[in-house]
Design brief:
- This protein is α+β, with helices and mostly antiparallel strands.
- It has two domains: about 160 residues, no CATH class; about 100 residues, no CATH class.
- The protein contains twelve helices and ten strands.
- A five-stranded antiparallel β-sheet has the order 1-2-3-5-4.
- Helix 3 packs antiparallel against helix 4.
- The chain starts with a strand and ends with a helix.
Length: about 280
Amino acid sequence: MGKLELVKQENFGEIQCNFYKKDENVYMTINQLAESLGYSNRKGIEKLIERNEYLKNSEFSVTDKLSGTDGKRYNTRVFTEDGIYEVTMLSKTEKAKEFRTWVRTVLKTIRKHEVYMTPKMIEEVLYNPDTIIKIATALKEEQTKVKELTTINSNLTVTNNIMKPKAEQFDRYIGSDGLIGLNQAAKALQTGRNKLTKFLKASGVFNKNNTPSAYYADRSYFVIKTPTYTTKYNTYVQTPVTFVTSKGMSFLYRYLKKHYDEYLEYDKNFSLDNVA
């Protein structure tokens, strides 16, 4: 196992965000993630972890030693790329959607153009100056994209303030149980209910009756309720209805992200940028 290495620094508004890399994984600290999402301190995210213990899994976060301002090294929780997306999906702050859009672009630049000066790379740069020119040009292009997106995000802040009352009304609508119906879940993902359920059934996530398979139900992504309906003949009918949990919404986002090309066969107009 290597150690965390700082590979990129970018500003989200006035907030400096450091991105670290270790064993080919990109990480961000809990403190900076909390600040970027608008929390006063990291306790905001720690409360999310208390309610969603799975965030402690290595798929989403790990603890590692980082140097503090006093020069000492402290155990710090850092979030993986999946963990960053997961937290932004669970967070209800005004900044969450805006930050998720911004950080996706930054993470793409790290995956595409981050340079590590290995002995082989050093030799190539020394004997072929065109190599460093190509690297610098690519990095410059990506930095320009990030700056443009930062300007767009500043404009989105104004829009978020206008839309806040509508967002709060929607939060009240989904209720204290934290569940959302399939129609609204599909709408939140900027797709159609029938297209989404058809894909989930084809992928084995759902059964034929639109209920989740045992594997996904056991992970608390979905909840099945069986309300009783009275027909005009006074007979009682019970029909299972699937609801999505907040954890499930995060899962659906990641699942569609992972199977993006496949889902385009069901919804050719689907775009992850609209979901962000």
